[in-house]
Design brief:
This protein is an alpha+beta fold. About 45% of the residues lie in helices and about 25% in strands. The strands form two sheets. A five-stranded antiparallel β-sheet has the order 1-8-3-6-9, with helices on both faces. It has a four-stranded antiparallel β-sheet with strand order 2-7-4-5. Helix 3 packs antiparallel against helix 4. About 10% of the residues have low confidence.
Length: about 280
């Protein structure tokens, strides 16, 4: 199949979008990313380390973070803000999964196109609406952005490699242990007492350190992991929704559906249907 035909068969599945703001102390511990991300830098400066390649990002940069890469981030300015779009991508043919090899665009691009910049902000606005067509509109914006990245990369013909730099991987081992446990055990119920024992710290220190290193509360961070795991399972398997619920440690299917709709704007059943086209 020729490349043009491959691109026509390519299917994007939007997962989530949000805007994040951090101070100079923000660090995102190194971990493997379970989905693809496109981040638009709204304000400030930071270092993004993607599979040991270091990218210095600043305002209006778009950075592509492929699925299954190792990612670490750290703010280098007093204020740092970005819009993050999460998605998966696949061919419907035989369930084949293809990622950056087909997308073929640069990891880092300085965006000077006002329309594309507006697309990111429009996604944030649309995410917070309650309109029935929201999921389709968000996927449409995502496809416009991806199309722009492919075209601009081919026009510039820039190298997709980056000089590997040494950097300090120091991260609070207690927070790292907690996050690792959350990622590896999405079926577990959230328990402040359990994580305090695991990390041997007080409840106050647990919440303060976790917020400092992840930018989120422990409960919200863990629920986001659960919903991301659930969304991928809905996309990639034919498991019943009740089985997906149990896989992420939620027994009440009605409660699961309510939380899922909060993140993805549609029910799990509709999400599976529209994402598979």
């Amino acid at each position: 199949m020729e490349n043009n035909s491959l691109m026509k068969a390519f299917h994007l599945a939007f997962l989530y979008v949000d805007i994040y703001t951090f101070n100079k102390d923000w660090k995102f511990r190194e971990e493997k990313v379970p989905y693809s991300m496109i981040r638009f830098i709204v304000e400030g400066n930071a270092k993004f380390i993607i599979d040991d390649n270091v990218y210095d990002v600043s305002k209006n940069d778009i950075i592509y973070i492929p699925e299954s890469c190792n990612l670490q981030c750290m703010s280098t300015s007093n204020h740092f803000s970005f819009i993050s779009v999460r998605f998966t991508a696949s061919y419907s043919i035989h369930g084949l999964k293809i990622w950056s090899e087909i997308m073929d665009f640069d990891t880092q691009i300085k965006c000077e196109d006002k329309f594309i910049i507006d697309c990111f902000y429009s996604m944030i606005k649309e995410k917070n609406s309650n309109r029935s067509g929201t999921s389709f509109i968000l996927r449409g914006y995502l496809e416009i952005i991806v199309g722009y990245l492919i075209n601009i990369s081919k026009e510039k013909g820039e190298s997709r490699t980056c000089k590997i730099q040494y950097y300090n991987r120091e991260i609070d081992s207690r927070v790292q242990a907690i996050v690792n446990d959350m990622i590896n055990n999405p079926f577990r119920e959230f328990s402040t007492e359990f994580y305090c024992r695991l990390s041997d710290i007080s409840e106050a220190s647990f919440r303060r350190l976790f917020k400092k290193h992840t930018g989120k509360s422990p409960n919200k961070f863990f629920m986001e992991i659960k919903m991301t795991v659930a969304a991928r399972r809905i996309l990639e398997t034919d498991d019943r929704i009740s089985e997906v619920c149990r896989h992420v440690g939620i027994e009440d299917a009605n409660y699961f559906t309510k939380i899922f709709k909060k993140y993805f704007r549609v029910s799990p059943h509709i999400y599976r249907k529209i994402s598979r086209g």
